[in-house]
Amino acid sequence: MAPIPSERLLAAVGEQLGPGTAPGAVLAVSDNGQVLLEAVGNASLEGQPMTTDAVFRISSMTKPLVAVLTLMLVDEGVLTLNDPVDRWLPELADRRVLRRLDGPVNETVPAERAITVEDLLTMRMGFGFAFEVASCPVAEAADARGLGMGPPLPSAVAVGPDEWIARFGELPLMEHPGSAWRYDLAYAVLGVLLARAGEQPLGELLADRVLSPLGMGDTGFAVPDQARLVPCYTADGSGGLAVFDPAKGSDWSTDPLFPHAGGGLASTASNYLRFAEFMLAGGAHEGKRLLSVDAFRAMTTDQLTPAQHSGSSAEIFLDGAGWGYGVQVSPTRYGWGGGLGTTWFNYPDRHTAAILLTQCLPPPEPLLNAFWSSLDS
């Protein structure tokens, strides 16, 4: 068994840190039972040292956890993948679809079929970011309704789940359900559905079914221990960094009105490594199976058609890889990243899980690339 290349990884990450990229990072690797957990650099531009128990906003790394929760409810018979979502979300019954992506919101046709639970998991609901057109009136209407179409800040959505889904239900879809992969509003819808199907608020349901069983006590939609939360930065336009969300007075300091299943969680490297190791074990934890073998295999199998791989969202976000349920998948690995500078992938054939957490919008690509290149070399 080869040792984890800790010196190489730490050097590669450390060389990329700085006032123009990110002040610090935490990395965690599990490799055939060996574990590396290290902090590099500083927690903030003010110079406080980074610590391994630092809390990060993991944004879209929320999606894999929510996908597991969904599949657990499928295993339990609470819902099925083929269920129309209007069973729980009557606000989304009788959908209409735009005639043209860049066309007027009122020029629509009836949807060919209902949205299903699987459409939400695979982000083939028919609504999300529209990069292929210069102007998309329905996306602008979603933004005007406060549906959270921008960066993942809890305060961006100022209403609760019932009002959120009612507002979304006022809009037509961009395309017919199941026809295209489009990032990423489907998971916001999924969170509302799960709370109704599970008869609990999303945060409580996720904690009861996933976080608590895995011992992820530092993961949630709010961060009670603000002392461990690191500031989140964004590029300031002149080669430096400006505060996007502070540690003290953070948007994550209190429970959000709308717990966003697509990107609302905060966590630590050691907590997320517990989830990664659960996935390496095929959906089992400490010898106890929490997710069925069939559900795990489906989650980590590409669900997209060849045509869906060529859509604008897929080209931008997946870069030639596929999408299962909540995770990007390729022949050698599966996992996902977050838009505030976090990344996780499992390599099942190597029985390796790896996580890098930093906090910067957009993610510092040279830093992330250096980490993965060093791990793969």
UniProtKB/TrEMBL annotation:
Highest taxon in the source lineage: Bacteria
Pfam family name, one: Beta-lactamase
Residue ranges constituting the Beta-lactamase-related domain according to the UniProt record: 20-366
Name of the protein: CubicO group peptidase (Beta-lactamase class C family)
InterPro entries reported in the protein's UniProt record: Beta-lactam-related, Beta-lactam/transpept-like, Diverse_Enzym_Activities
Gene3D superfamilies on file: DD-peptidase/beta-lactamase superfamily (3.40.710.10)
